[in-house]
Design brief:
Length: 503
């Protein structure tokens, strides 16, 4: 058992272990740290060493009740505040988080195993960016006037929905939380977040910091397990909107619970994103693009990871060699070390799952596995959840490795001969989140961009989610959009029609 929490530091700190302890065992409700009603806590581990770094509050329905009650009370005054003032407050939260970027980056690296330089620092900066972006949109919550009849003024106005329940995953927890919390708040809602059990610390610190600016109760966070804490949040009668990022399986449960109450739900679920490479592409740029697209620096733990790479037959062998050489040159090691490119898998459960997929692929007749990069030799990392990135060739499209989301550093490369057949293979998936096409023939690139079944298609690049671009999948990848002004207006507000007959 760790000690009871010490006060969290006011100034940014670079001592991530002390900060983790200080954040131990608490929810953040109604403007302050609150222990769980049950007194239960669960351990948080550093996946690079196996050491316990903190305990998190184990939330249940009683904690959910308390958080939602606080959020519901706060919502009335928050919604009554001029929209630009709400936006300014959220933008100030962004500015405050910028001062804490290094601290948050170290904390998220500690609890998730994501490398500081390549991933964690990027995430912390993006969170500040998202808050600043949405903070600037306070005056954009506009309705329309409708030409209904002479002497009748008919307008629509946008109103907040009330208390938003947000369930987040562990892969980019601060960023995905910001994509929900920032637009929800600017729109005049208040929020209760349920963090992922694997990564409860950095998001708790973000919530604490934002509460230095926001009125109490506007932004609350609970930690705990899905069925015990997430489910009561989703089905709470006072939660008027649910937004969820996670697996398809849990997404279905969440959607059903929201349907019972008839409240809107946004779902950001899995992906099995195809990358299509034509022989006329810019070879070096595209090889580098494959490394970033596959999110190898995040151990492939991304819904948009290019986990199916289709390469035109004449260049496929060279392409795989060049990719493997690049991944080989990446350094796997201590996430907190600036030299490290690739950190660890998040948990033992994910580790076993990814290893299972790799073993199944290796045992498949006709398949070849190329393991790249070297395992770290530092004895301090002996218990770390490191997995060498693997590039598979020779798998069939029907294989489980090609159809299911692995959420690990595993990609499958296939040759193709013509645009029609590669389009059919790329669309032969339950998922439809993202896709990319790499070619210097823009006619072909655009044609495929229109015909690929995905919420986001990029040609000759594969950037991660951006604050100002609408993001969300089709098919089993989800429902609704996140990021962008459109997502804020369509998914965190409703439109009311007002008609005034002034005759
Ligand atoms: P992953 O496999 O990436 O962990 P999950 O879908 O299992 O994805 O989890 C994503 C989030 O959903 C986590 O915060 C988890 O605690 C939460 N969760 C899991 N089960 C439920 C549930 N029945 N109701 C609400 N939230 C849940």
């Amino acid at each position: 058992m760790l000690d009871r929490p010490h006060p969290t530091p006011k100034d940014p700190t670079l001592d991530e272990r002390a900060l983790a302890k200080a954040l131990s065992g608490m929810h953040f409700i109604g403007g302050g740290f609150v222990p769980p009603r049950s007194g239960k806590r669960f351990a948080v581990h550093n996946p690079a060493t196996g050491e316990q770094v903190a305990e998190a509050a184990e939330g249940d329905a009683a904690d959910v009740d308390a958080a939602v009650a606080n959020a519901a009370t706060a919502q009335k005054a928050w919604a009554a505040m001029p929209a630009r003032k709400r936006g300014a407050a959220v933008a100030s939260c962004g500015a405050l988080l910028r001062e804490h970027v290094e601290e948050l980056a170290r904390l998220i690296a500690l609890e998730t195993g994501k490398a500081l330089r390549t991933e964690s620092r990027v995430e912390a900066n993006t969170v500040a960016d998202i808050l600043e972006f949405f903070g600037g949109l306070g005056s954009e919550l506009k309705g329309e006037s409708v030409p209904f009849a002479p002497n009748v003024l008919s307008v629509t106005v946008r109103e907040p929905l009330g208390v938003v329940g947000a369930i987040i995953p562990w892969n980019v927890p601060m960023l995905l939380m910001a994509l929900k919390v920032a637009p929800a708040l600017v729109a005049g809602n208040t929020v209760v977040v349920k963090s992922a059990e694997e990564a409860p610390l950095a998001v708790l610190r973000v919530c604490e910091l934002m509460n230095r600016v926001l009125p109490p109760g506007c932004f609350n966070i609970l930690s705990g397990y899905g069925p015990e804490c997430g489910a009561p949040l989703v089905s709470h009668q006072k939660v008027r909107k649910v937004t969820f990022t996670g697996s398809v399986e849990v997404g279905r449960i969440v959607a059903k619970a929201a349907a019972e109450k008839i409240v809107p739900v946004t779902l950001e679920l899995g992906g099995k994103s195809p990358m299509i490479v034509f022989a006329d592409c810019d070879f070096e740029k595209t090889v580098a693009g494959a490394i970033t697209s596959m999110r190898f620096t995040r151990q492939g733990q991304s819904c948009t990871a290019a986990s199916r790479i289709y390469v035109e037959r004449p260049i496929v062998e060279n392409f795989v060699d060049a990719m493997a050489a690049k991944v080989d040159a990446m350094v796997m090691g201590d996430p907190l070390d600036e030299k490290t490119d690739i950190g660890t898998i998040i948990s033992h459960g994910q580790y076993d799952k990814v290893r299972g997929f790799i073993e199944e692929g290796r045992a498949t007749k006709g398949a070849t596995a190329r393991a790249c990069s070297r395992m770290p030799d530092d004895p301090a990392l002996k218990k770390g959840l490191f997995i060498q990135p693997v590039i598979f060739t020779g798998l069939q499209n029907a294989s489980r490795l090609v159809q299911e989301e692995i959420f690990g550093p595993v990609t499958c490369v296939f040759p193709f001969d013509d645009p029609q057949s590669v389009l059919a293979a790329a669309n032969d998936s339950e998922y439809g989140l993202a896709a990319s096409v790499w070619t210097n023939n823009l006619r072909v690139g655009l044609e495929l961009a229109h015909r690929l079944e995905a919420g986001l298609v990029q040609v000759n690049q594969n950037l991660v989610v951006q604050a100002n671009l609408s993001y969300g999948g089709v098919k089993s990848s989800g429902l609704g959009k996140e990021a962008s002004l459109e997502a804020m207006l369509e998914h965190f507000m409703h439109k009311k029609t007002i008609m005034v007959n002034y005759q």
